[in-house]
Structure formats: C-alpha cells, structure tokens
Amino acid sequence: MDKQYTFQDFREIVATLRSENGCPWDKEQTHKSLKPCMMEEAAELVSAIRIYDQTGSAENMREELGDILLQVVMHSQIAKEEGLFTLDDVVQEISEKMVRRHPHVFGDVLADTSEEVLRNWDEIKKQEKEGKEWIPSPLQEIPKELPALTRAPKVLKKVDKLYEPQVNAQAAVVRMAEEVEALKVAVNCQNNEIVESEIGNLLVEIAQIGRLYKLPLEQILTDKVEDMIEKHEGNAHNVIK
C-alpha cells in the first residue's frame, strides 16, 4: 500500500471527480440518477454480510461498505454544489439524532430493555416528524421504494396502531386458508385477474404474520430461493458427473 488515505482524502477525491476537470460520468450524476446505484449497493452489502456469515471472510463486506460510503459522499457533494447542504451537515444531523433518540444513554431516561428503547425511539421519532411538510400522512411516509415484503408489515403495523386493530396470527392463518380456497377456484377457472387478486390477498396475510412475529420476510424468501438454486444446481452437478 503506497498511501494511507484518510476520510478527508476521500472527500477530496469525490470532489475532484465532480470538478470541471473530473470524470465525465461522475459530473453528469444527479440525486435521481444515482437512485439505482444506492439500491444496488445496499443489496450488495446485504449479500456481503451473508457471505461473511457463511465463510467468515469480511473482505467483500469491507468493499461494499466503501461503495455505500461513496454514495453518501457523492450525494452530499452534489447537494453542496446545489447549495442545499454539506457532508458536515449530514454528520451533524445524524449525530444530533442519535443523541436525541438515545436519552437512556446520553440523558436521564431509563430504559433497561430493547422493548423500552424501541418505544422511546418511536415516540421521539413521532415528535420529530410533526409539522414536516414532506410527510403527507402516517401511512404514506413509509417509502414506496421499499421492497413490498418489507413495506407491507410496516404499513400494517401503523394501521394497527393508528386506525384499527389488525387480526392476530391465528385469524390471519384462517383468512389465508380462505384465500387459498378462493385461489383454487380462480386457477380452475383460469381467471388471471382473480388469481392476481387472491395472490395479493395471500401476500397481505403473510405480511401480517411476518409483522406479528417480527420476521424478515424479504430475507426469508431470499434464503428459500437460494436453497432452491443450490438444490437444483446440486442435482444438475450430480447428473453431469
């Protein structure tokens, strides 16, 4: 390693890439154009964590964290050029938030369990969001950009808390059984529109159960797909041999 780079060096590298004599591609980027990059890098980081769990190798995770950091610094640099905010502002705001949302660490509020911490967190978060113009409603503040299996439990949780109590897990299972019967009828009739509707109803009930048991539905499905890939690729490998 010829040079040990610092965080300040990295900030200057990104600023140079965006400068008049910088990289043509980097100079063209906007907050909107970088949205797919952030989503892809986040997914690759999650993949790197899985690889670490499976192999014990942290090399890929280190690399992907760097790519996430690049996105943060790049967006902050663009915002600085637009006169919106700077990276220092980003650091200041998240630091203030962490202190504010952990009064049991930085203040005199007592919280001995994770459940108490989360209750305090939600209440403080609610107070912070009061009067914010970009939040149209409690349900619409949950980003639609989230994967559906991640977003649905969050919406259901807010519906349960703010509007009407949702069904318990047993009731959700009963409703799932009813939806399965309706789906059978739709499949037998080869009615695509009703099949789509019934699958949607089933997914909502699955999201309800996932919410109640605090299950990572997105990860569960991802793991099942990986199991399926390994099973079929393993069988194919055995056939070839």
Kindly describe this structure.
This protein is mainly alpha-helical. It folds into 3 domains: 1-85, Helix Hairpins; 93-130, no CATH class; 139-241, MazG-like (Helix Hairpins). The protein has 11 helices and no strands. It has helices at residues 7-17, 24-28, 35-55, 59-81, 87-100, 103-106, 114-129, 148-162, 169-188, 192-212, 217-240. The longest helix is centred in the C-terminal third of the chain and has 24 residues, at 217-240. The mean pLDDT is 91.
Task: Give the helix/strand layout.
Layout: H1 7-17, H2 24-28, H3 35-55, H4 59-81, H5 87-100, H6 103-106, H7 114-129, H8 148-162, H9 169-188, H10 192-212, H11 217-240
Helix pairs in contact: 3-4, 8-10, 9-10
% residues in beta strands? under 5%
The percent range for helix content is over 70%
User: CATH superfamily membership of the largest domain, which one?
Assistant: MazG-like
**Average pLDDT level:** 91
Question: Number of DSSP strands?
Answer: 0
CATH architecture descriptor text of the largest domain? Orthogonal Bundle
What key phrases describe this protein's structure?
241 residues, mainly alpha, Helix Hairpins, 3 domains, 11 helices
Give a short synopsis of this structure.
With 241 residues, the chain is mostly helical.
